[in-house]
Give the backbone structure.
Amino acid sequence: MDYQYIHIDQVKSDGSLGKPNTFRENCKYFAGKDVEIMVRKKRAKRSNDQNRLYRAYCKLISEHTGYSEDEVHSIIGYKFRRIEKTDEQTGEIFTYIRSTTQYNKMTFADHLTEIQQWVENTFHFRLPCPGENWEISLPE
């Protein structure tokens, strides 16, 4: 996957951007390259309920496997959000873990489903679905 830049801004009544300098600065990466620019209404990010459910999943997986919650979080990131990018100049391959902070509600819901299926197939237990009645004690 090539480098992507998502610019979040507000369009003024005259059609100009509120932060044109930020947009211009980040576009410098693409100098001399053909680009595709799409403008759409900003999508809602993942919800707080989804984030709490994800953390509950990490806790449940941790309790079942013996890994710490931080280790589970890292394992999930490595398994499902690992990105490899080749530096065009050096040919070196860099690996990084995509953050979920920019996921919208749909993308994050798909990620939670992916985790549920993985846990069921790998560890042979079922994580609760959103909206199910279940109890877990989480630190405040």
About this structure: The longest strand covers residues 82-86. Residues 48-65 form the longest helix (18 residues). The CA atoms of residues 73 and 82 lie 13 Å apart. The mean pLDDT is 88.
